[in-house]
């Protein structure tokens, strides 16, 4: 009997390799649980590529700190903030820029380390996954090409894992476009059926707290 399996994609990779103060503890814990053998953790290789640019774009320090600098100058001119307090804040912002810049410079190394981590299994897009992407594109899913590629990879990999003897396959997905429920918690008919057919249990977080409860069940929404 093979161990249970958990699938993740780009949002998980981003949360693991982001600057230290912005990493998501649950994402890091998921990797640690895989290292300890609680389940096998899988991610499409294209998610590592996308995460590299996503982290640099999302966490660029100047786009965040420059707004605060502009506010401090305005607030000081208006007499709302003293020059001493403004200068202290400027020094903190300079430290922030330096720290985040240094962290972002480590992204390539962190990605390489993640790709070779013994707790993570990186899989390439296969021909069946690409064929699945084409089929999904003909459905009324309103998904972007990249999301279609991820969905095709997850569905096919989930089926492969089940056939290989894994008793349960989960998918941690924070992207609302690929979740099989809407903002009201109601099932999206097409996506729900796709995940059901591939026997994949979908989570909206990285906790997979009920893995034992659902290890032998399918997603019935």
CATH class of the largest domain: Alpha Beta
CATH arch. level architecture of the largest domain: 3-Layer(aba) Sandwich
CATH homologous superfamily designation of the largest domain: 5'-nuclease
CATH topology of the largest domain: Rossmann fold
* Alpha carbon gap, first and last residue: 27 Å
- What's the total number of strands? 5
Strand order of the largest sheet: 3-2-1-4-5
How would you describe the oligomerization state of the chains in this entry? single chain
* H-E order: EHHEHHHHEHHEHEH
**Structural class computed from helices and strand pairing:** alpha/beta
- Binned, the helix content reads 55-70%
Report the C-alpha radius of gyration, rounded: 21 Å
User: Which regions are unreliable across 5 or more consecutive residues at pLDDT < 50?
Assistant: 214-221
What is the general shape? Answer: elongated
Report the mean per-residue pLDDT as an integer. 90
Q: Biggest β-sheet, characterized?
A: 5 strands, parallel
Beta strand %: 5-15%
Number of helical elements: 10
Number of domains: 2
């Amino acid at each position: 009997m093979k161990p249970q399996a958990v699938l993740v994609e780009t949002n998980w990779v981003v949360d693991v390799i982001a600057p230290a103060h912005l990493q998501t503890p649950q994402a890091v814990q998921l990797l640690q649980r895989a290292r300890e053998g609680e389940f096998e953790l899988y991610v499409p290789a294209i998610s590592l590529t996308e995460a590299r640019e996503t982290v640099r774009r999302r966490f660029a320090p100047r786009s965040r700190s420059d707004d605060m600098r502009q506010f401090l100058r305005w607030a000081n001119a208006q007499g709302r903030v003293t020059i001493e307090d403004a200068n202290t804040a400027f020094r903190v912002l300079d430290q922030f820029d330096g720290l985040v810049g240094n962290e972002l410079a480590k992204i390539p190394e962190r990605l390489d380390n993640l790709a070779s981590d013994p707790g993570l299994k990186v899989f390439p897009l296969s021909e069946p996954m690409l064929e699945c992407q084409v089929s999904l594109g003909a459905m009324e899913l309103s998904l972007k090409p990249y999301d279609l590629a991820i969905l095709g990879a997850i569905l096919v990999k989930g089926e492969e894992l089940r056939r290989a003897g894994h008793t349960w396959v989960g998918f941690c997905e924070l992207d609302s476009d690929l979740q099989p429920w809407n903002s009201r918690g109601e099932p999206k008919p097409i996506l729900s059926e796709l995940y059901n057919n591939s026997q994949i249990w979908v989570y909206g977080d990285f906790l997979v707290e009920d893995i034992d409860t659902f290890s032998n069940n399918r997603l019935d929404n």
